Amino acid sequence: MNQYQEAAAVPLRWVGPIALSGNAITGEVDVPLATYESPLWPSVARGAKVSRLCERGIVATVVDERMTRSVLLQAPDAGAALAAVRWLTEGRAELEAVVAARSRFARLLEIRHQIVGDLLFLRFEFATGDASGHNMATLASDALLDYILTALAQLRYGSVSGNFCTDKKATAVNGILGRGKNVVAEIVIPAHVVGSTLHTTAAAVAELNVRKNLIGTTLAGGIRSANAHYANMLLAVYLATGQDAANIVEGSQGITHAEDRDGALYFSCTLPNIIVGTIGNGKNLDFADANLIRLGCRATAEPGANARRLAAIIAATVLCGELSLMAAQTNPGELMRSHIRFERSMEEVVGQ
Amino acid sequence: MNQYQEAAAVPLRWVGPIALSGNAITGEVDVPLATYESPLWPSVARGAKVSRLCERGIVATVVDERMTRSVLLQAPDAGAALAAVRWLTEGRAELEAVVAARSRFARLLEIRHQIVGDLLFLRFEFATGDASGHNMATLASDALLDYILTALAQLRYGSVSGNFCTDKKATAVNGILGRGKNVVAEIVIPAHVVGSTLHTTAAAVAELNVRKNLIGTTLAGGIRSANAHYANMLLAVYLATGQDAANIVEGSQGITHAEDRDGALYFSCTLPNIIVGTIGNGKNLDFADANLIRLGCRATAEPGANARRLAAIIAATVLCGELSLMAAQTNPGELMRSHIRFERSMEEVVGQ
Amino acid sequence: MNQYQEAAAVPLRWVGPIALSGNAITGEVDVPLATYESPLWPSVARGAKVSRLCERGIVATVVDERMTRSVLLQAPDAGAALAAVRWLTEGRAELEAVVAARSRFARLLEIRHQIVGDLLFLRFEFATGDASGHNMATLASDALLDYILTALAQLRYGSVSGNFCTDKKATAVNGILGRGKNVVAEIVIPAHVVGSTLHTTAAAVAELNVRKNLIGTTLAGGIRSANAHYANMLLAVYLATGQDAANIVEGSQGITHAEDRDGALYFSCTLPNIIVGTIGNGKNLDFADANLIRLGCRATAEPGANARRLAAIIAATVLCGELSLMAAQTNPGELMRSHIRFERSMEEVVGQ
Amino acid sequence: MNQYQEAAAVPLRWVGPIALSGNAITGEVDVPLATYESPLWPSVARGAKVSRLCERGIVATVVDERMTRSVLLQAPDAGAALAAVRWLTEGRAELEAVVAARSRFARLLEIRHQIVGDLLFLRFEFATGDASGHNMATLASDALLDYILTALAQLRYGSVSGNFCTDKKATAVNGILGRGKNVVAEIVIPAHVVGSTLHTTAAAVAELNVRKNLIGTTLAGGIRSANAHYANMLLAVYLATGQDAANIVEGSQGITHAEDRDGALYFSCTLPNIIVGTIGNGKNLDFADANLIRLGCRATAEPGANARRLAAIIAATVLCGELSLMAAQTNPGELMRSHIRFERSMEEVVGQ
């Protein structure tokens, strides 16, 4: 139950199970999808069914994890900004200590910089355990900012966030330097499953992926992204598990890659910026807590393992929905027909 | 109440009132914000307070509205694709009739095309009344696709969606060609209000906007976007009013522009891609319906006027939250302190 | 001969002939390539050889042509900017007359706008005959600006160029709205030619194109572009024919699309922004004039036909070089070996 | 003189001197500009005049330098690709040795990776002394590729260039990770010089920069770039000094930042991707060699110092032209008038 008098009660269904393997989770899991777009449920369910018919299911590989915050400083000129960068590089150990003193969980991983005229943008990267880390990173950056401004009198405060972070904005930097969990979900689907469950062929899906997701998105002026609808699945799981769902903006930047391998379909979804946690704002609401428990994301005490498990499940869920829609779009008319049919049946069921 | 047994009950509060004027709405309105990030409420509330202290309040101008869908076709070669484009241009009246025959509300506004090798991408643009128009546009495009494929035997079906639409993806095309409501929200804040309510100066906000939103986002590799956190406000209103919140991906692409005018602060948020409706999926859920009624977005029978009113309110809400955060970031430490303070007080209140 | 005492004498060779067909040129032409990168010559020559072995050669389709300039104005607010846009739409005939009065050749095709806060960006599109049209468009825009500022007293001058044009910058707008010649070059290469002349297979080229040009460029954060090295060929022909070669910046944004068709290779280069002319700055230098004559680009009096012929030749030249490099990169080590071998032989020949 | 029978003789003039200081060069230098666009000469000359009237002249800071090449590999799956990345990280010393064994000058600085499905993109970064380093980087990457493919039998060759490099393409990766010389050029111009030489005010230039270069480019869908015409100046110096001028594509991505400081104008040009060298292809042509000598770029034996000097000069030249055009565009009509006037006078002089 929700503790607030008022709430936006987003309809939620459990779909699955999805068969999973990889470096963060092995086994079958149901996933909760909260959405106003009911056709999403059968769409993901079809993908989940496919996963159960494949040898390794969906293989989810967590490639990286980190949370970032960039601060903005003004120097007397670019030369002074460059000198500050060198001072920071040499004093790395002190910076790590500043972070450790402020937070039990945050750990400084890396500092990147950009100099524009006399402006200095510093991008701090942190390990943040099972938290998505927004607040932890801001808190740690605040401490680093204090420390730097005290030590380097020639620098002036610009902003605690310089938009080189980048939070909830679709940019290139997060994919290139990393932010959130970087997860690749892959599946190899035997030809007979492609035919019987997806009603298409590997060749048709691979061709559509090139034309629509790669060429079509390029034409549209997309940035570091090539997929059909990652945002739909992300939103639904984020809402169901108490995540800051505004992070679907960068989370939905990812690349679908498909190949016809002698009739079998290799299909993968690469999501470099899944920003989720199992603790923090939203995760303690009763329903979110219950959903995280049912997902097995409260099961271990190893810092970060619960969040990595969740990220792997999310990437697999995205693959299920992406695969299903792509298969549908290889067939003229199927998409619309299935939308209409499902929404009509939903209306009957729920009296919408 | 929600008709589903299960739901993600996203905490919701009404904030305001916001003082508004412009070509879609005049007067004061409270706005509902559903979010797991509770600091958003006082942040928007501060902006709303500012709006009530300014002569015209926030002036929201609806510049354009349309919904789009792109289809993908394959021609024998680029020359044949070009011939098809010319045939479509000459047969414009027939295409409008095809759309009118399929839908009572959708009206064909424009057709754009892109030719890549032998691939032909057609982007249909529709007026869709008070609906956001996803399904209406897909249905109409499906009809157009049938019509074209029947008439031009040399073309082959590629996809009912070619990603040149573009739905729920951050690209350049929507801002350049239009998709959803294009709304500009502006305010001129007297110097004494900037000082007393926002605790900053017009010069500081304008300077921060250039350095963070414009230069910082450029550095990050952003695409057609320059703002601090539009996504947060959009998500909260979208969830509260039954919108397809995955559309915050493109909705959050917008530009904040601020100027110091002799101490007064000119501050504007331009949101070219607000994709919302007052009818359709999600809007009939009890709470969404009630919220739309309270917003005055069920009040008129003029097609499109309710949705324009909603879009104007949303743009103004975005301005409130953007203004408040930008003001906060001009002051070292304020952001973090206010987050911590508010979250602590929330915990006391709601027992999180 | 060059009339200046000093010059940068860029080495030039004629390569070809390239076999061409399409809507702007039919027949075989040699092309002049001025470059400091000598391996470009044999690379394009190999592609030209391929073209002569295919039935229709390279088919070049000129899809569109226009030149643009955007001006920037400031209005009292967004509402006033919108009113100005409506005034311009209604007074379209007068605007055409303003352009016609200023220039014998420029003709107003279209006006696009963007409103950001109180700023109004107008993008004028012109037909400019055989000129690339930079100056013609600026002159006409200047006249339009005068006319608008005189008629609408509430608007203030911002800039004669507002960067929404966009000239010599890599952006999305030119590809979406059009600027310069939009040309598609296509070829279908029989399997035996792919094997004997390009030492590869259609499948290998198509696969590499997806992985490198589409996925690789997406990863790099490219914008509306997916190719291996269009810039090299463009620069070489632009310099050889007196073009403003800084326009390779947007000219090199284009998409290579390749497919394996039962062993035959479908290969296309789509270049939406070839900004070239056969008259104007640079084209009257003795060598440029001579080169344009030899290309057959001084042969007709039909306005625009010479420039379209040149654009078609350039797109075909780009295809030759792109095809050759892509084929080479399917084979480990070939690229480097051919570079080293050719540069060594060049050194022997020219005593570099 | 040129050793080739044929050449594109691009008109060249020396402009200046430009007054310079910073970490790579101090003093005054004339610069050679080869261009078909003659108005560029007086434009840069005006900026050079301004530089001589300012205390430190133009301060050019070389922030970074490196050359890159990305290779593309295919792994059995993402997990195997991740294992390969870890193997490379642990075996860093061996990789450095492989590079050292292949080249006297190249030194491995950094390896970055991207995993997309089962594809592995590796981006190698090298120090390359006074060479721009294209060939050196390709040669070294070729050696690394051989080494990796031999050691890790599960990987397959994809391409020696995976477009994540990125060469001669406008992307985000080069600015974020670095490629070529990263140079910031800055100047502080006293108010009276802004008025007397540039006929404008600091406030007007700063305002125009925000509206045109930052907002206008954002509207156009630009990527990591905000300037008026860097490409023009880069092309002219690149051609005059034997550079591979196709590198203006990424070189022209940079940010102009201007501020009004109590009437004085702070003006800076940040160019993160100046890809130039003083040795290698093109630099041995007689005129290029002579020009490099006159620029003082053959004067020292310290590896890299000549190329850094050249990069600093180029950034300063870009600033001169950018400043001059921006000042002109603050005044209605000046741009066109100066173009027409200058071209007419050029015609008289050279008999064009």
Core attributes:
352 residues; 12 helices; 3-hydroxy-3-methylglutaryl-coenzyme A Reductase, Chain A, domain 2; 2 domains; globular; nine-stranded mixed sheet; alpha+beta; disordered C terminus; homotetramer; Alpha-Beta Plaits
Architecture blueprint of SSEs:
The structure is a homotetramer of 352-residue chains.
Chain A: E1 7-22, E2 27-34, H1 40-52, E3 58-74, H2 78-90, H3 92-102, E4 107-116, E5 119-127, H4 134-151, E6 156-159, H5 173-177, E7 180-189, H6 191-198, H7 202-219, H8 230-240, H9 248-251, E8 255-261, E9 264-274, H10 286-294, H11 305-329, H12 334-350
Parallel strand pairs in A: 1-3
Antiparallel strand pairs in A: 1-2, 3-5, 3-6, 3-7, 4-5, 7-9, 8-9
Give an overview in words.
Four copies of one chain form a homotetramer. Chain A is built from twelve helices and nine strands. With 352 residues, the first copy, chain A, is α+β, with helices and mostly antiparallel strands. Chain A has two domains: 12-64 and 181-351, 3-hydroxy-3-methylglutaryl-coenzyme A Reductase, Chain A, domain 2; 66-159, Alpha-Beta Plaits (2-Layer Sandwich). In chain A, helix 3 crosses helix 4 and helix 8 runs antiparallel to helix 11. Chain A is globular. Chains in contact: A-B, A-C, A-D, B-C, B-D, C-D. Chains A and B meet through strand 1, helix 4, strand 6, helix 5 and helix 7 of A and strand 1, helix 4, strand 6, helix 5 and helix 7 of B. Strand 1 (7-22) of chain C pairs antiparallel with strand 1 of chain D, so a sheet runs across the interface.
